[in-house]
Amino acid sequence: MTLAAAALASGPALAQSESDNFSEGAKKLGEALELFMDGFSEEMEPLAEAWRDLLKNMPQYEAPEELPNGDIIIRRRDDGTGTDI
Fold first, then answer.
1. How far is CA 75 from CA 5, 28, 65, 79, 80, in A?
2. Residue 10: which H helix or E strand, with range?
3. How would you class 60 by CB atoms within 10 Å of its CB: exposed for 0-12, middle for 13-18, buried for 19 or more?
4. Is residue 80 part of a domain?
5. What is the block-wise mean pLDDT of the chain (85 residues), using blocks of 10 residues?
6. Is residue 56 part of a domain?
7. N or C: which end of the chain has fewer CB atoms below 10 A?
8. Phi, psi of 72 (to 5 degrees)
9. Model confidence, pTM
10. 3-state SS, residue 8
C-alpha cells in the first residue's frame, strides 16, 4: 500500500478524532469560562454594593457651588430626598 492510499484509508477516522477533540476542547473552554465568570461575579459584588450605596446617597446633596474666594461647597439637603435603588 502506498503512503497516499494509507492516508486516504485513515482519513475518516482521523477526521472523526479531530472532531471529537474539537468538541471536547470546546466543552472544556465553556466550563472554564463559566468558572471564570462565577469567580469574577463574586469578586465584583463588593464593588457593585459600594456603587449602589454611593448612588443611593448622592441625591442627598445639592449641586456643587463655587464661592467668590474659590472654595467649592456641596450642601447637604435637609428635605430627605434620597432615592432607593
1. 86, 55, 8, 12, 13
2. helix 3-57
3. middle
4. no
5. 56 66 89 91 89 81 92 84 49
6. yes
7. N
8. -115, 125
9. 0.40
10. helix
